[in-house]
Structure prediction request, 169 residues.
Amino acid sequence: MEADFSEMRDELQSQDALWRRIQLECQQLHAKLLKIREYEDMQEIQMKHQSSCVQLTEQLENKNAELLLLAQSQEHQREELNKIRNHLYREEQSHRSEQERMKTEISDLTEELHQKEITIATIMEKASLLERQLKMELEIKDKLLAKQQLLDFRYKVIQSENTHLKEMV
Prediction:
């Protein structure tokens, strides 16, 4: 009987350890969610950067109109404008590739988070099932213990009656 209680205690400790692991994994998922939010904030900043790039492009076009009016430095200014446009194009390409990389990374993190959520749900279901099974086993063992105690009591009553009858005989 004491072995049964020891076994039940071991099972409870095992369930407790499983629960702690689940809580740790939840904390890790929360940290990853915070990272995803940081990436989203960075993406918003990059969108603002893109808006400023559009403004720069508009300013460059206005500058181009002024440069056409100035005949003296026309060739030099065209070269400068081409350099600026090339730089802007490289910046936009760099920005686009960075955005694509971030989208991919966010997608991967989202998928990983989804898989972790599925894992947690599965573990929670298993933990719930094990908890129900343990409760049922405890109820059965409590009933068996009560029966055993009743039988012990009856045995002692019969034993004392036998002793009494032996004394009478």
Observations:
- The radius of gyration is 39 Å.
- Residues 7-163 form one domain.
- The helical segments are 2-69, 74-168.
